[in-house]
Amino acid sequence: MPAEPPTPKLKPCPVCRKPADPRFRPFCSARCRQVDLGRWLAGDYAIPAEEPLPDEDDEG
Ligand SMILES: [Zn+2]
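That is the input. Now the predicted structure with zinc ion docked in place:
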């Protein structure tokens, strides 16, 4: 098992899911950064952290 290089784990680009670049993090490029900014301004930003709520039976 080879040792992994001490590179910090970067989240994938939220726009295109490519490996993010430290210079443009959390995006992979300046273009994606602009795309994300445009989404924010347009108010059409999708929240990725949307977890399905478990069905709870509040009966009894
Ligand atoms: Zn990207």
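Residues 10 and 22 are 8 Å apart (CA to CA).
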